Amino acid sequence: MASFSDSMTVTLSLGSQPFQMAVAERLQRSGALRRLLAFPAGVEIFDPNGIEGLKLVRRYRRYTLMNRIIWAAWRRLPGSGRAWNMPIVVSTGFADRLASHWVPSATIFHGWTGNCLACIRRARQYGSIILIEQATMHPNDWRDALLEECATFGIHPRDCRAILPTALMRRMEREFELADRILVPSRVALRSFDKAGYGGRTVVVNAGVDHQFFVPPSETIPRDVFRVCYAGRVELLKGIPYLLQAWNQLDLPRAELVLIGEVAPEMSRIMRQWALSNVRFLGCQSPLELAKWYRASHLFVFPSVNEGLARVLLEAMSSGLPVVATERSGAEDCITSGVEGNVVPARNVTALAEAILWHFENPEASAAMGKAARSRIEHQFTLPLYAERVIRLYRDAVGRSGEASGGRTDSAIAS
């Protein structure tokens, strides 16, 4: 297990991904955490507090209130529905500036893209090594994929909520330029950053999942109804139109498709056109309810056309589900076709339908894939293993920094 020397310190900036907290806990236990900047619940600053864990030293309550006011006011403006996410640019920039006042001197600053540009600049003043973590492909790939989907299904980009504001994309690009390392969750994401010119500074760090929370059912689920599950936003980039078309073509007896997640407004026409009566849209669910649906299903399908490594893939596999996913979802990093499930080409309705049909017609072999999926998670994608991958990256980054400066690397992480 990798460990830190006494002189190694890390300032960690958390984004919206829950698995990042595993790194914070690992750093806290080793005594290497300098400070934690947390954004999921607003802007909160935590310092290590010995064996007691973390101590909250500042919470910007006014930021949370201001953020609500900005969103409420924006929604009331004429035409705001066509640029619904513009307040994100303002709110993330403001949160970043508030947090930047709390960035201390540390060996490493590890941030999350989109909300740490000011923090990076402050960390640079202390000579910190800058690591930026990105959950998806490069923003250019995101934009291009979305524009292609809009053109395919006759939806104007301004009516699609997934479109990234240009100002936010520029902000993220500047963060990439300033970073010493860019962490991405999969090989498909790495290729997108290589295409954007960052291949030499980008490294794959597979994410992790809470395998003690997302667990397989205690008993075999009856096949009275073949239940296929999807979780995530119900929108164009997730490939939902292709899934609905494939399900429509199959028209399987005693089967249902369950889609869990917020439904984007632009999907209304597509849903009316292709959704059969045995398709259920459940909306957003709590983590506890989501885990129950995983355990009540026989197959998880994720047809995304643009992803990093979807967290729901790991959650479903951890729950003992075989998976059908596209090669654009990050699935090639966690699924070997024919072992834990099937990896199919994105935007290919026929291939998607054939893969679902195979699992319908081969229940025993499909269940065996679900067991293999759970085993793959236990051996490669747990939260502690994710934290260890990040720790090794810290060690490598500090070692390379020391080599570049020609000095000793007393602060390097020791094995």
Can I get a quick summary?
The protein has 415 residues and is an alpha/beta fold. The chain has helices at 21-30, 61-76, 87-100, 117-125, 139-153, 166-178, 187-195, 240-250, 268-274, 287-295, 311-318, 349-361, 363-380, 383-405; strands spanning 10-14, 33-38, 44-48, 54-59, 108-112, 129-133, 181-184, 202-204, 226-231, 255-260, 279-283, 299-302, 323-326, 341-344. Helices cover 42% and strands 16% of the residues.
Structure description:
- The protein is α/β, with parallel strands linked by helices and 415 residues long.
- The strands form two sheets. The protein has an eight-stranded mixed beta sheet with strand order 4-3-2-1-5-6-7-8, with helices on both faces. A six-stranded parallel beta sheet has the order 11-10-9-12-13-14, with helices on both faces.
- The protein is 42% helix and 16% strand.
- The relative contact order is 0.12.
- It has two domains: 223 residues, 3-Layer(aba) Sandwich (Rossmann fold); 155 residues, Glycogen Phosphorylase B (Rossmann fold).
- It is built from 14 helices and 14 strands.
- The chain is globular and about 65 Å long.
